[in-house]
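sry for the spam today, last one i promise. struct tokens for design, 116 residues
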């Protein structure tokens, strides 16, 4: 049902020990359940368990299993993708990189209409 953000938030608050699926599902159920939008705890539990089981198997996933059965936590060893910035005035760039930057500038011609 789209509880991914809530699961990540709950696990980040839990810390290094992690939480069990039941506790995560209970927390999300309590946050999302309201007078006008009633949820079933079983549906929330199935959704949370499915998300965690699918994502902990991926190599670059942010979620990992702990040694305890049914307990998950945020993976600390995930390396975020590095943002690469290139600046025109920097003389230390390789020729390969400067050629790519120049080619990108040539391909980004402004084809919009003039307002005046």
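last one done:
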């Amino acid at each position: 049902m789209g509880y991914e953000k809530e699961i990540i938030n709950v696990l980040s608050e839990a810390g290094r020990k992690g939480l069990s699926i039941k506790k995560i599902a209970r927390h999300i159920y309590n946050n999302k359940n309201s007078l006008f939008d009633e949820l079933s705890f079983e549906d929330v539990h199935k959704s949370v368990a499915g998300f965690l089981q699918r994502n902990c198997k991926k190599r670059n996933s942010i979620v990992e299993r702990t040694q305890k059965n049914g307990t998950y936590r945020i993976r600390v060893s995930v390396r975020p993708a590095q943002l690469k910035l290139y600046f025109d005035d920097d003389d230390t760039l390789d020729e390969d990189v400067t050629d790519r930057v120049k080619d990108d500038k040539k391909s980004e011609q402004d084809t919009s209409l003039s307002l005046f």
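The chain has a mean pLDDT of 78. ok im logging off now
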